[in-house]
Amino acid sequence: MNENSEENDNTKYDFEKHWNNSYQKLPITNLGWYEEKPEPSLELIEACNLPKEALIFNAGAGATTLIAQLLGKGYENIVVNDIASAALKELSNNLSLHKNAYINYIVDDLTNPSELLKLKNVDLWHDRAVLHFFTEENQQKAYFDLLKRTLKPKGFVILAEFNLEGAKKCSGLDVFNYNEEMLQERLGADFELLKSFNYTYTQPSGNTREYVYTLFQKNIG
C-alpha cells in the first residue's frame, strides 16, 4: 500500500480532528451538508407519531437545524451526538433561543463508543449522512451493534445515506453507498422497513447529492 492510499483510508484517518477542523474553518451555512430545512427527516419523524417525551437520538448531529425544528414542535427529550466537540458547541450556541430545553450533548465515536454505551431506551435513532463515512466492516458492525443495543422494542430508525448513485467521496473522505436492501440486511430480521425514498439534496454550493432515506421499526409482529 502506498502513502496516498494510506492517507485516504478512513480507518487510519483522525475523524475527530477532521470534523473539528471542518466546523472551525467555515460558517455552518457554507458546509456541504448544511440543510436549512430538514424536511425529509421531519416527514419521517412525524410518520412515527411519537409522544413529545419520546427519547430522540441524533447520531452525528453536527450543527444540524433539525434539533431547533424538533424543539419548536414540542419534543422535549433529545440526545445529540458528534465526534467533534466544535460541532456540538456550535449547535448549542444556535439553540440559545431554547434556553429551557433539555438537550443531552454527547461527544463520542459511534464506531468506538464509551459514553454512548450508557444510552438506552431510545425511541428514535436518526442518522443523516453519518453511517456512510464508515467504510470498514468493523466500523459498520460497531455502529449497528450500538444502534441495536440502545433502541427499545418498537423503536424507530431513520437512516439517510448516499445512495448507490450518490457521491463516492465527501469532505475529502471515502464513503460507503447504500440502498434500502443493504440497510435492511445490516439491521436484520428484527427490523421492518416502513418507508423508503430517494432524495436529491442541493448543497449550499448548488451541487447535488443523491440520498436514500429509510424508516425502520424494531420488532414488529
**What gyration radius follows from the Cα positions, in whole Å?**
17 Å
Q: Level of helix content?
A: 25-40%
Stated plainly, the CATH topology is called Rossmann fold
Low-pLDDT parts are 1-9
Task: Give me the count of strands.
Answer: 9
**What is the correct CATH architecture?**
3-Layer(aba) Sandwich
Q: In the CATH hierarchy, what is the superfamily? A: Vaccinia Virus protein VP39
Largest sheet: 7 strands, mixed
Strand order of the largest sheet: 3-2-1-4-5-9-8
Strand content: 25-35%
Q: What's the SSE pattern?
A: HHHEHEHEEHEEEHEE
Distance between the termini: 48 Å
Total domains, how many? 1
pLDDT averaged residue by residue: 89
Overall geometry comes to: globular
- Counted by DSSP, the helix tally is 7
| Structural class by sheet pairing and helices | alpha/beta
Question: Which keywords apply here?
Answer:
alpha/beta; Rossmann fold; 7-stranded mixed sheet; two-stranded antiparallel ribbon; 7 helices; 9 strands
In short:
By secondary structure, the chain is of the alpha/beta class.
